[in-house]
Amino acid sequence: MTKPMPDKPTVDGLEDVWGPVWEQDGTYRFDRDSATKDAVYSIDTPPPTASGSLHIGHVFSYTHTDLKARFERMRGKHVFYPMGWDDNGLPTERRVQNYYGVRCDPQLPYDPAFVPPFEGGDNKSSKAADQLPISRRNFIELCERLTVQDEQQFEHLFRTLGLSVDWTQSYRTIDDTSRASAQRAFLRNLERGEAYQADAPTLWDVTFRTAVAQAELEDKEMPGAYHGLAFHRTDGGEDVVIQTTRPELLPACVALVAHPDDERFQDLFGTTVRSPLFDVEVPVLAHHLAQQDKGAGIAMVCTFGDTTDVVWWRELQLPNRAIIGFDGRVRSDEPAWIESEQGKALYAEMAGKTVFSAKKVVVDALTESGELIGDVKTINHPVKFFEKGDKPLEIVSTRQWYIVNGARDEQLKATLRARGEEIAFHPDFMRVRYDNWVGGLSGDWLISRQRFFGVPLPVWYPLDADGNPVYDQPIVPAEDQLPVDPASEPAPGYDESQRGVAGGFQGELDVMDTWATSSLTPQLAGKWESDPALYDLVFPYDVRPQAQDIIRTWLFTTVLRSQLEADVAPWKHASISGFIVDPDRKKMSKSKGNVVTPLSILEQHGADAVRYWAASSKLGTDAAFDPQNPKQIKVGRRLAIKVLNAAKFVYGFELPSGATSVTEPLDVDMLAELGSVIDQATAAFEGFDHARALEVTERFFWTFCDDYLELVKERAYGTATDATHETQASAVLALRAAIDALLRLLAPFLPFATEEVWAWTHETSVHRASWPTRAELPTQAEPAGLLGAVGQALIGIRGAKTAAKASQKTPVTRAVVAAPAETRALLERAAVDLAAVGRIENLSFTDGEELAVTEIELAEQQA
Question: What tens digit of pLDDT does each residue of 694-709 get?
Fold first, then answer.
């Protein structure tokens, strides 16, 4: 049913008008019953982290995805456009702690009547000691409650933005189906030998008390200091001085290492030295990773100061003498390798202290003993942090679960590189980030986390006769039992009374890294195993849209899981959006405190205006955003308003009876130009260049409004000199054909304004209409340049009137336009329209080197 054309069209409130209509009519619903695989366009939509609020960067990147989705739907594709919510992991836990003022203590019993101490506070400065400890189950219930609230707010914002998501195809990464899928994938990895557990040095965040994967690291410049330490040669030779930034790890020293080609240390290789203060004998060894120009050229190897220590420890087969505990403090148990009474006493003084306090103890002792050599040299150097943490990482020895990723398997690495080559990256230069990540992998993917709100690792361990867990014989559930929680459910074949007793079982308490679930978004959205028919329709997907900073995490791990499970690439294309930067060109992020929440922007300017701003940036390029002066958004709002007004103006012309064809040269040329625009916009969308599609469409639209409408309106009204029924019909037919095509060209960018206008003359949604083609236009002529030439002449005539300080409505008795011969011939074909809009009684043309109005005589001047 068509909608009455309003007297005064407005863009305000269109979101509230059309959002409910689209939902009620199922405008964007995926019609699986009539879909065939080759007619489906499937999108592996990124599930936003349901923790807090969305920021303007989400609006930016999700709009990019929606533009492509709308284009493909109008091209006749059955678009599978789901939405997921990534609602498990550290961000959610931290938000719950801050929001409710609680922290999880797994040792506490469940309280079914628990009420949090407060609700809704930021509580960001609260220390863990100030937060109320609660049971794991109580904590998870709060996580569930808050993420559901956040997801409702996110959905409201995305609906306001006009995302053409099929909201019936939604999922949560922590719901039962997602947990079952993640556990199923893990069990199959385990069965194929792709998942394993190992005791190994692990990057550890002491704040969150959890292991951290390589992909979650970031370097931060931190102050430090080089300390010169004197090691004593056991053969009585001169002391060996090393430089270290971590003297507190001296008790964990296991060797000294220098480069095998360094002439300074050739006589030391194969000998031993004794450490200062602790008097522990350690070997001097050669290794190619030692840097001759760093520090003293010879390094102290400790377990573990950094990742290079791990490499040396592994490749040189050194002992593990770790002294840092999971809490980031020096362990209290006395190391067996320290035998001197002085060393034992000093270690006892260090025990229980933070690394910073322990460093002071060691430096003071070195100063007193005379084994601190030279001045302490302050430096700034990169230190590894967990991307969500605020303290430097430590390296501790733990038992963790891993999934192979090609770091230690060259064949798998080569396969993953080949899969990357199969995927078309948009823009293509983003591919190098994937290639570099695969090539630089140094260890398998650590997937276990010592957290609470996540997908449990689905394993139990039998306990031997002494009550010790047998880790190399894990007990696993059948797939039809999934999802399971080993922390609260007994192992298969056991009952709960056997938990923790000799001969019984022990449940795995760790959960999976959030990426271990998110890496399965193609499977989660497509209902892998639970709905095989749907999964076969959508997988492999057509496109994965995402941000550039998670290529190494989300994109890579999804390719990995797809390769391990299905031996295929998960999608044909990867579209990579850029960042949003503030006016100082700094990336906007929550951690920097410079994010802008988008709902107020949407309410103030309208969704179409905000979408226009997002669509103006190409994939892979950063866009600046100044909330105090959003110029591009204002331009977008002006465009949306113009669409309403121009369409109303066009629909105001009555179509003459019997009108069948476009005959006038200017009308033909305008439609020919429009045909070229359609071709260019189509090619741009096909090539994932929405910004180019918008650019060519918008440029033509303004030419259409500013020049063509003005040139033909007299003829369209039937009031122009020499106007006939045929020439009037030609103008109106051309106007209506153009506005009909332009509305569809602009529909992906301005879905609300175009839907409003379309409803004035159509029964169905513009977003279910066919994408325009050149072939549907009333003429198939090639552009001759007439519209551009006449538009330039019109500018000249208007300029001449302005220079004479006359109104544009002032009649012109005589005007002469000079132009090159080819352009003059074009102008002569549109002389009637040009004379009508310029109110020119006598218009003539003459030869000239460039187009210009050489003579003009206004009616008042003649008088």
Answer: 999 999 999 999 999 9
